[in-house]
Amino acid sequence: METRRIGIIGSGDVAKALGRGFARHGWDVKVGTRSPDKLRAWTDETAGTDDAVDVGSFAEAATHGDVVVLAVRGDVAKEALDLAGVTNFAGKLVLDATNPLDFTGGEPRLLFGGTDSLGERVQAMLPDASVVKCFNTVSHHQMVDPEFEAETPPMFVCGDDADAKARAEEILTELGWPGAEDAGGIESARYLEALVPLWVRVGENRDTWSHAFGVVQ
Ligand SMILES: NC(=O)c1ccc[n+]([C@@H]2O[C@H](COP(=O)([O-])OP(=O)(O)OC[C@H]3O[C@@H](n4cnc5c(N)ncnc54)[C@H](OP(=O)(O)O)[C@@H]3O)[C@@H](O)[C@H]2O)c1
């Protein structure tokens, strides 16, 4: 039976948006960080309400979730997974929201890409988990119950496990998305991650941060 426990590895804007959002949708959420104290004011805001979010270490969050979201800086994903304990992900769906971005020197660039991706590296680091790249191409403001002026596009996902992608799509639908746009195996993370520097440049030109890419026919 599917349970509704989710662990979120990370404490930044993405982890907070997803943590609150999943809680609002009735999930039992544990957010993981190396410094739980820094989230105290944030958790106090909803303590005792249905939207309450628990906080623990990376390992506690990974252990807690039947589904785990990875939401840390792309350049430290390996360090975060090592701290979380790779065995704590075994048999689980992992939604990988990370991007391998280099912010030195102005607009973000990919740290690596073309023939490699962070999605593939995360899957290789977690061989007993099913990694689905998800959430990485939209702003944290739009990750849960998105609101666009135009029709909401399905969320781009990719991953090697068809069942895991189907479960990811169910979760996305519950969170207010019209479904998932399947971009293929985890190798397609090369292209989903490459959308992000483009997303930033388009946002700067349009002076908006609430946009998303979609497929039209
Ligand atoms: N911001 C967005 O709208 C957005 C949208 C789509 C995708 N993303 C991607 O989602 C990921 C999270 O983004 P974010 O903006 O929420 O947060 P972020 O600032 O990119 O990452 C914060 C997280 O990184 C962890 N971290 C930093 N240094 C670390 C280290 N040396 N070892 C282990 N962990 C370390 C922090 O751990 P502690 O908790 O211990 O401090 C924290 O949980 C990124 O990969 C980003 O590219 C972001």
UniProtKB/TrEMBL annotation:
One of its GO terms (molecular function) is oxidoreductase activity. Residues 5-100 form the Pyrroline-5-carboxylate reductase catalytic N-terminal domain. SUPFAM superfamilies: NAD(P)-binding Rossmann-fold domains (SSF51735). The keyword Oxidoreductase applies. Keywords: Oxidoreductase. InterPro entries: NAD(P)-bd_dom_sf (IPR036291), P5C_Rdtase_cat_N (IPR028939), STEAP_metalloreductase (IPR051267). Signal peptide: none annotated. It holds the Pfam family F420_oxidored. PANTHER family: DUDULIN-RELATED. This is Dinucleotide-binding protein.
